[in-house]
């Protein structure tokens, strides 16, 4: 073990099938991590995980 790679494991289903989508919202970099295994999603803004509600709110404020 002890593998540290760029592959991320899904915390839900423990699969290494995370797909990252990066986008800019309110001049902040937001990363959506989507698992192709269990379809769970995480949103990370400025390095912190945020609730999807906050992302949608920022997106609708334009
Ligand atoms: Zn998963």
Structure keywords:
single chain; 62 residues; mainly beta; 4-stranded antiparallel β-sheet; 4 strands; 15% helix; 39% strand; binds zinc ion
Structure description:
By secondary structure, the chain is mainly β. Helices cover 15% and strands 39% of the residues. The chain has a domain of 43 residues. The longest helix has 9 residues. The protein contains 1 helix and 4 strands, in the order ββββα. Strand 3 and strand 4 form a beta hairpin. It starts with 17 loop residues before the first strand and ends with a helix. 3% of the residues are buried. Strands 1-2-3-4 form a 4-stranded antiparallel sheet, covered by helices on one side. Bound molecules: zinc ion. Zinc ion binds next to loops.
Layout of SSEs?
Layout: E1 18-25, E2 28-35, E3 41-45, E4 48-50, H1 52-60
Antiparallel strand pairs: 1-2, 2-3, 3-4
- Described by the principal axes of the CA atoms, the overall outline is elongated
Bound small-molecule species? zinc ion
Radius of gyration: 13 Å
Q: What's the total count of β strands?
A: 4
**SS-derived structural category:** mainly beta
Helical element count? Answer: 1
The N- to C-terminal Cα distance equals 46 Å
Estimate the mean pLDDT confidence: 84
Any low-confidence stretches, pLDDT <50, length ≥5? none
| Proportion of residues in helical segments | 10-25%
> Widest sheet: strand order?
1-2-3-4
Write down the secondary-structure element order.
EEEEH
- Biggest sheet, in brief? 4 strands, antiparallel
């Amino acid at each position: 073990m002890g593998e540290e790679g760029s592959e991320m494991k899904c915390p839900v289903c423990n699969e290494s099938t995370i797909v990252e989508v990066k986008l800019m919202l309110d001049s902040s970099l937001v990363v959506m991590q989507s698992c192709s295994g269990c379809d769970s999603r995480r949103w990370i803004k400025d390095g912190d995980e945020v609730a999807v509600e906050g992302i949608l709110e920022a997106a609708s404020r334009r």
